[in-house]
Amino acid sequence: MDGIVFRNVTKYYPGSKKPAVDNVNLKIESGQLVTLLGSSGCGKTTLLKMVNRLYEQSEGEIFIDGMNSKEVPVNELRRRIGYVIQQSGLFPHMTVEQNIATVPEMLGWDKEKISKRIDELLEFVHLEPKVYRKRYPRQMSGGQQQRVGLARALAADPPYMLMDEPFGAIDAITRASLQDELLHIQKKLHKTILFVTHDVDEALRLADKIVIMKDGKVVQYDTPLNIIANPINEFVKGMMGGDDIMRQISLINVRAAMENISKHSGLKPAEQIAESSDLKTALAMMLKTGCDELQVIDENRGIVGRLSLSHIQDVLSARQQEQIMEVK
């Protein structure tokens, strides 16, 4: 049983009669980036922090790769889980290299292996090692600190990552850049990531699946496209932006809606679009070229799938199909 499984998980804080997390049942599939979305006080951060036992659940069980988290020594558990918080959480008295080396040193890695890993990770998050290794957090911008925080969380190559509003205190341009960085990392490393956010656009842009929470309960758990197409109630519909379908699909990438190439013996010649492009761009290309089908290509220009107008229409609800057709 890979991934993270919550079974009847409830959390009461001392002195409170109302649970912060109320009987949550979820399965986070291995290798997926799942966002926990909701307003302040909905229980999303509490749920996240129970995974690495920063908080202990009052009731229920949490399984990680089939093992009950309470039966795993807490230090061993946390070494398998990277943790990234808002404002990076870097140790201010340590240099960048010392911050990144923290967990590898605890695990007894030799100095050469640690040094190589530091360079590798700094390059991975687009920070030149020669420039940044000896810097202290105070000598860097917020976005640079957040990149180092991400590198530190990845240092021991943990299979799981917990991210608690990591980009929440950063300006919009840097935030978009860091979101791109995370998507790039996730595509290469396929970590299992739980990502807390209160920002709907961020959730739509990043997630394989979204958990929408309210009053400690899970209201809906599905792919971004399915939540937009079929919100379970008015609360979810309102949170996702109501009828603003064009804004919504501009935040979802082609990869989320394409059909995998392995399902087809061959594809007819067609216009091509990058899998990282958004659905609004794909729709505009279809309308401009008159093609009802696009070939989807990866960063190496290899064909990885197909995207058809009928497929997008099938996924979206009848109400939203009508709005898209009006664009024509």
UniProtKB/TrEMBL annotation:
Gene3D superfamilies: P-loop containing nucleotide triphosphate hydrolases (3.40.50.300). PROSITE patterns: ABC_TRANSPORTER_1, ABC_TRANSPORTER_2. Its EC number is 7.6.2.9. Belongs to the ABC transporter superfamily. It is an enzyme of class 7 (translocase). InterPro entries: AAA+_ATPase, ABC_transporter-like_ATP-bd, ABC_transporter-like_CS, CBS_dom_sf, Gly-betaine_transp_ATP-bd, P-loop_NTPase. It is found in: Cell inner membrane. This is Quaternary amine transport ATP-binding protein.
